[in-house]
Amino acid sequence: MTTAPATDPTAERRVVALAAAGTLITLVAFTAPLATLGATGDAVGAGVEGRTWILSSMSIGLTAALLPAGAVADDLGRRRTFVLGLLVQALTAIVCVVAPTTLVFVLARVAQGVGGAATVAASLGMIAHVVPAGPRRAAASGVWGAALGGGIAAGPLLAAAGDRWLRWWAVYVVLAVAAVVVGVLATRLVAESRTHAPRGLDLAGGTLLAGGVSALLAALVEGRRDPTAPTVLALAALAILLLVGFVVVERTSRAPMLDLALLRHPPFLAATVGGLANGAGPIALMAFLGIFSEQALGVTPLAAALLLLCWSGTSIVFSLLARRLPASWSGRHQLAAGLAVVGVGLLMLGWLSTSSGSGRLVPGLLVAGVASGVLNAALGREAVASVPDGRGSMGSGANNTARYLGSAVGVTVVAVVVAAHGSTPADLVAGWNTAVLVVAGFAFAGAVVVALARPRRASTMQGGTPSTR
Predict the structure, then answer these.
(1) Structurally, how many domains does the chain consist of?
(2) DSSP classification of residue 5
């Protein structure tokens, strides 16, 4: 479990506020294209395939770099990594504004994801360093989880509002300015921190992981149109090869980026599976909600963003309230219960017909939002509590890697399932109803695995690896 040195309350509040602000900026950037895909695609000359890459490109950089960024932050400095990530996000946002082609825009979004990975991974490490475990850590994790939900809510709204009153690129200008401001404040107000036992940079492991995850996500993006295409199969084979190489390197390295023995540590396993199921379940379905509600239910982009707010806005409130849950409810209990209730909320989004109005989705979105808020707070806390002391950013990177990898897999499954039914509004509704059952199944399966990941008797962490006494 990660412990924190004694700090004054003002310093704690500054770190939590800035860490949350950086996470908020990253999630706004991540979700912004959902509301302006048409205008953005027209501006950079993107066809159907190009627009798919516009939606997915940031997730590739984000997912591929989260774990390496967390390991770097712990060893070389969490504040330094956090600020550098914000600087990369600011620069790439400006490139997005002036991008002349789809390729330039997509590459800028991939790099923006790398910057976001550094920001998000370091943010939880900064919190874990200054906020002691217990009620204060729970409250801080709630604020961080609220920022996660806030970014998901604000991204489409800001993008839609900017496109309506100015142009599609307005949100990227706002993001660039906000990233610079938060970076400057962090440099001045946050003390540098790093682990007391550096492990050294695992360049081979980091390269293999980033390459393998990138190839896997590229295969998932391309596979939405034709899962059996030669390009998809080649990318999948490359991903398997690189990820197997990563496992081999980590098993034989004296200082691995990710100690694979952690996967035998029940709290780490529960947090990782919880993140994976959260991504493959609610996050994946909500990423498709805007497109579905516009094409099948006939709502405007702004109305679709407001519909998403029912879920994400509710999650913000309940992330902040999660600290009031009884102390007897362990992190594992909160994760399992949160995933189970999310599954119920997702099921409530199904059984639609072509005559269903968008209001029919609101009850399910609210139920899923309540559970997602508890999940986000618990995942933020368990990500750093389930790893050895001083490795909080690595824990954050591993957990968020699972979250966004699950999201990429889930979005692909939803897209393929919906597309298999056809393209008319009736077909889209039928596909949505099937996809709801699939993603709810992901959430319920995650809840079962987390519930079964019971800590071993007198389990502890020794020498950076889990052990049982």
Answers:
(1) 2
(2) -
